[in-house]
């Protein structure tokens, strides 16, 4: 039976009656409602902290930066403040071990230069242990900060995703976002990592590359003694689809900063007769260079200019053409050195030209050296 008579409010026990302060003034309750709505909108529309950043904040100090020093190196004095710098994933442990064993046998066992390993994720204990055992130099392990391994906020993510899909899989790494993050990192951030602060020169090494000849001199010392800024061993032509506007953006940079362009630059090495980019670049998976070159105001301005243009994500600008265009603009020919070192990164290799040296100290085939390939730009470089 429905109750027809409403129970009288006054019949409620005193303690269940509504407290007097909940009866808000209408304008006050409107303000409270507005505040609640604002907070809800902020929660819904605010950009969440990127996952990578949340994880970076949760990392232990040893994940961010760990040095494993070898007691036998405590009193070692190296002629140059230099290190091998290796960006690698944990999954590349075995390929990297093989590379480091060759590098040690062909060169570093006699010198004991240190290694800096960098990763966008923490290195595993297994990785660190394996590297410590494979090397003679001290080992330093560092985490790449999220800001150095991400799409910057001014790049339209939707446009970037569309561009990646449109490039497709026919272009190497055409659809890969992580490859683009790697290229941006290697173009503008590796040299800013705190673990590199103590060094003047670096030698870039990648998992899986081979060193096919003895290296009977110290390339770091050679760079430092002769005032060289950038050293390469293989040069090639870039896949044009990946750098559609890199040349026009570089020309815009040159127009904006004419004071940064070296008088005796080598831009003609990478320019076609009609003034376009001929796609020549130093293959940056092997690189021995001065960190001062990358830390310079010229290079910093150039990277910032490129990064603002967004081409690392809206196209697929590689760090190799970026480093090479910078070297061509800011350095003279005598500051760049061709290292005729036995080196193999699939599918190309450099095998030293001297037949006597070759037969005594190498396990590569000179006929297979990329310098004989029409895609190599090294002869043109040497002829400059
Ligand atoms: N930590 C980390 N390293 C990467 C990643 N992608 C590429 N690298 C490293 O970046 C370098 C270049 O990558 P690679 O796959 O060799 O590219 P390729 O030489 O252009 O074919 C190598 O040293 C890789 O180990 C990644 O997602 N994370
Ligand atoms: Mg590689």
Task: Report on the architecture of this protein.
This protein has an eight-stranded mixed β-sheet. The chain has a three-stranded antiparallel β-sheet with strand order 6-12-13. It has a two-stranded antiparallel sheet with strand order 8-9. It has a single domain (57-382), classed as Alpha-Beta Complex (Spore Coat Polysaccharide Biosynthesis Protein SpsA, Chain A), CATH 3.90.550. It has 384 residues and is an alpha/beta fold. It is 38% helix and 12% strand. The N and C termini lie far apart (105 Å). It has 15 helices and 13 strands. The longest helix has 20 residues, at 26-45. Residues 1-22 have low confidence and may be disordered. α4 packs parallel to α5, α7 packs parallel to α13 and α9 packs across α11 (297-309). The structure holds guanosine-5'-diphosphate and magnesium ion (MG). Guanosine-5'-diphosphate binds at residues 87-89, 92, 119-120, 178, 182, 206-207, 285. Keywords: Transferase.
